[in-house]
Amino acid sequence: MKKYEVPIWILVGVLIVVGLYIFFRSGGVPEGKYDAFAQCLAQKGVTMYGAAWCQACQREKANFGSAFRFIPYVECPENAKQCLDLGIGGYPNIDFSGRQKT
């Protein structure tokens, strides 16, 4: 009887797919999981700049779940002058400098 070996990359791929399936079926990020982290970022002056039509921005927001409400966020198409003055050239743009935004 011949022994069949499964390449490791197939096994890893299956595990990733199963993990993602479980994650999304469970509703994503648990409520409140990142609240303290998001509040700390906000206290340090971290700001996210983005646009509603930006898929990467939507994914970034989803990564924080409900905690994103604590992250200072600027919708650049609605605040074009502010974003241009700060040199925001693409989205999402997360500013870790802590400088005060106007």
Write a structural description:
- The chain has a single domain, classed as Glutaredoxin.
- The relative contact order is 0.17.
- It is 42% helix and 10% strand.
- By secondary structure, the protein is mainly alpha-helical.
- The mean pLDDT is 81.
- Helix 3 links the parallel strand 1 and strand 2 (73-75).
- It has a 3-stranded mixed β-sheet, with no helix packed on it.
Summarize the topology.
Blueprint: H1 8-25, H2 35-43, E1 47-50, H3 55-64, E2 73-75, H4 80-85, E3 93-95
Parallel strand pairs: 1-2
Antiparallel strand pairs: 1-3
Provide a compact summary of the structure.
This protein has 102 residues and is mostly helical.
Q: What is the structural class? A: mainly alpha
- Largest sheet entry: 3 strands, mixed
Q: Report strand %.
A: 5-15%
CATH superfamily: Glutaredoxin
Helix content: 40-55%
**Can you identify the CATH class?**
Alpha Beta
CATH architecture: 3-Layer(aba) Sandwich
The CATH topology is what?
Glutaredoxin
- Topology order in helix (H) and strand (E) letters: HHEHEHE
Cα gyration radius (Å): 19 Å
Number of helices: 4
Q: Taking all residues together, what is the mean pLDDT?
A: 81
Query: What spatial order of strands do you see in the largest sheet?
Result: 2-1-3
Whole-number tally of structural domains = 1
Q: How many DSSP E strands?
A: 3
Assembly annotation = single chain
**General shape:** elongated
Which tags fit this structure?
single chain, 102 residues, mainly alpha, Glutaredoxin, three-stranded mixed beta sheet, 4 helices
